[in-house]
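Hey,
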Amino acid sequence: MTKLPQPQGWKILIKKKKPKEKTEGGVILSDLSLEAESWLDITAQVVSLGAGCYADREPYCKVGDWVIVPKFTQFKMDIDGEEYRFVNDDEIIATIDDPTVIKVYS
């Protein structure tokens, strides 16, 4: 596995949840459908926090938490086939226990 970049300042590195490749009924989704679902998905897992995160307030999240983030974030990257993003510490909307229960509509 490639070494992940370390967030600086108040940035948080998150890893997007991969979309399911099959429906509950067993239909295999096309690449286009998977890409569309990925765009709509707003859940991610916290990978690491910059040293300045939450320096002036109680932390909203910690490494390993599942979080809800805005659909459109500043910086996206693909590392070893996984989608990672950097978000600001104040962009975390909520923490959640189970990301599979969240459904988002455009």
